Amino acid sequence: MSTTNNEPIISSYAKAPTKTIKIGGTTYAYRELGPKGGIPVLFFVHLAATLDNWDPRIIDPIAQNRHVITFDQPGVGGSSGTFPGTLEEAADQAYNFVNALGFDLIDIFSFSMGGMIAQDVVVKHPELVRRLVLTGTGPRGGKDMDKVVGATYYDMVRAALTRSDPKEFLFFNRDVAGKRAGKEFIERLNERTVDHDTPITIKAFQTQLKAIQRFGRSVPSDLSIITQPTLIANGDNDRMVPSALSVDLHRRIANSELIIYPNSGHGGVFQFHEEFALVAVEFLTP
Known about the structure:
Elements: E1 18-23, E2 26-33, E3 41-44, H1 56-63, E4 68-71, H2 87-101, E5 106-111, H3 113-124, E6 129-135, H4 148-161, H5 166-170, H6 176-189, H7 202-217, E7 230-235, H8 244-252, E8 256-261, H9 268-271, H10 273-284
Parallel strand pairs: 3-4, 3-5, 5-6, 6-7, 7-8
Antiparallel strand pairs: 1-2, 2-4
GO molecular function, one term: catalytic activity
Organism: Herbiconiux ginsengi
Protein name: Pimeloyl-ACP methyl ester carboxylesterase
């Protein structure tokens, strides 16, 4: 287990420097903040995302009292290598990353595709994880999970026509509240002004989409193996990973609690970040 050192404590994700660690022939890019020592919280990011795509209004409150680590999967952002063809392989890569950092017990915070990878990590290595947060995600083999590909490309076209960030369409409803939440979310992501990550390549993005599609069409995992306390959250109108799949996760994971935010979409936890950050901090408190 990693221990504390004399590095200054960084409390703002916008100011967390990008670090690297080499595992075999692959270099992993990551950032960390918050007080070191104890059990870290590892963040698993969404489709097409890099280190720059985490909402500081969720990460910063958690990092007030916890060691937070975000990372790029191989082939994404500042990490070398290639993104694998399956999310199960991505889970293996994440496990290797945790091992290389020297941790034998972690908490996980995940969103969307990251939640799919996180599930595979817990199923294969249940002893590694103490507490699990699954947001905007669903189970392997979940109904209509594979439709994320069509929804993604459709909203990317809509965003291009209005010169908007695709996440405004993919994550938020297109009503007044949703449009406002989407623009505020993008503004928060832009609070970091230096040391930006490298955007995902088209090839890696397409590989991720195919991997999600395979995940959605695969035989369901036995999630009864997940006995850790689990927090599941989503909006009530998730068009990317249908909200019903969050309910399905809650049904499959015995020791879980479910929060569904009203009048919100895939990014419901970002639209309701003030409320959700409080819940997440309390849930992840050792």
